[in-house]
Every structure is written in structure tokens, then in C-alpha cells.
Amino acid sequence: MWYWLFKYIFMGPLLALLGRPKVEGLEYVPQSGPAILASNHLAVADSFYLPLVVRRRITFLAKSEYFTGSGLKGWFNRWFYTVAGQVPIDRSDADSAQAALDTAERVLGDGKLLGMYPEGTRSPDGRLYKGKTGLARLALHTGVPVIPVAMIGTNKVNPPGSKMWRFGRVTVRFGKPMDFSRFDGLAGNRFIERAVIDEVIYELMGLSGQEYVDIYAATLKNGDGSDPPEKSETVGKDVPSRIPETAAG
Predict the structure, then answer these.
(1) Which residues are in the Phospholipid/glycerol acyltransferase domain (predicted)?
(2) How many structural domains are present in the chain?
(3) Which of 55, 166, 24, 50 is nearest to 115 (CA)?
């Protein structure tokens, strides 16, 4: 109940006034059944404008820090993110990452829409960054369609690092569902997973018009040149590899 109250009464009208959202390709979102909405990530506002324009409820995986605060503020944050459809996940190590994927699989198993950000974190400068393979692993294991979503202008309405919101124009552009059934039986192969997530990022690049950067966004945010474990799986310098319709050998 609270989800719909926030969407249509408490927050939705204000968000619509601030961002005047324009929606393209909404017909690609299925009216029922599970699917992964794979979105670029420019600002916190992405997690508000995407549910605002989709008729069905969307569940996002949210970092556990949103649910662990103390005092009145901590209680309110836990309550708000819970009623807003967020599911807490621990991203501290490999075991936690697998637990997060297990949680995501349960959400999809219930026939729900799952919102994911394949870059793993917000873009530090508005460009599109290398995707993490967790989304690919989930898509290959479950066989559900992946719908690419480009969020455009949310970083203008809700500038990163600022608590102020501004008037602007937000565009939410959905692409055609992506079917990876040609990779059936290859779940768990890290090269196939890299190929799948690169294909998703390629679609996001076309939908959003963003410049692609072949490093993880977290690498730039860390500022120390470190790269997550997937560094060895890099393909290409300028754009993600475009995978043909048949599995590569």
C-alpha cells in the first residue's frame, strides 16, 4: 500500500513536476511475468523516476547500509526503503555477492520486475562505465528477458553530491527485450557472462547516447587505480564488444 501511496500521492506528483518525465518504449515492459530492467545510473533519482513511469511495481537491490542506521533517522530510512520496494544486500565479499544474486533470483521467481544497475554504482561523471557480470549471471541462470533502460537528465534534476533537486527534463527510454537463450547451458562461464554484460552495456550506450569508458565506475571513484577482480575480463578499449547472434567459440 505504501509503495502506491508514495508513487501516486506523496512523491509522484512532485517528481513529475520537477522532471516532466518523457517515456519512450514503455510497450517493451511486459505486463506480467519476471524481467530484469537493466538501467544506466546517473543519480539517486533514477530509482524514483523508473518506478514512476512503469505501471508495475519494481524491486531494486539496495546496499545494506540504507537499512542499518540507528536512531529515528535509521528507523525512517529502513521503513522508507522497505515500503519503496528495496531489498537490502551485502556487497562486502564474494559470499555476500552470491547471496545478493540468490535474493534477486527469488524476486524473479515470484514473477516480479527486478531493477538493476549493471555498472554497479552511479556514474561519477555522466559517462557509461564497464558492466559487472552479476546481472549476466542472473539472466543466464534464470532465462528471464533483460530490458535495457536509459535514464537521461536525472543528473540534472538531482545533481550527484547535492541534496538539492532542480527543475529539468527527464527521459526514460526502454529498449527491446534482450534474449540470451542462445547461451543456454553456458551459465557460469565467465567469458560468456562478460559477453552478455557487454552486449547489455552496448545497448545502453545506444539508448542513452553516453560516452563509454572501459573501466569500472568504482575504479574512478576509488581514485587509487585499483580495479575489481573482473579486470582481466576487459574486452575492447572504445566500446563493449558487440556479440553476434550465435555463441562465440
Answers:
(1) 35-154
(2) 1
(3) 50
Q: Which three cell numbers stand for residue 165?
A: 533537486
Question: Which amino acid, residue 105?
Answer: E
CA separation for the pair 68, 64 (Å, rounded): 7
- Burial of 172 (C-beta count, 10 Å sphere; 0-12/13-18/19+): buried
CA-based diameter of the chain, in Å? 56
* pLDDT tens string 80-116: 777 777 777 766 666 666 777 888 999 999 999 999 9
Does a structural domain hold residue 216? yes
Question: What is the value of pTM for the model shown?
Answer: 0.84
Full residue range of the structural domain in which residue 154 is found? 2-233
C-alpha cell recorded at residue 210: 553516453
The pLDDT mean for the chain works out to 86
Amino acid, single-letter form, for residue 198: D
- Please count the other Cβ atoms lying within 10 Å of the Cβ belonging to residue 240: 24
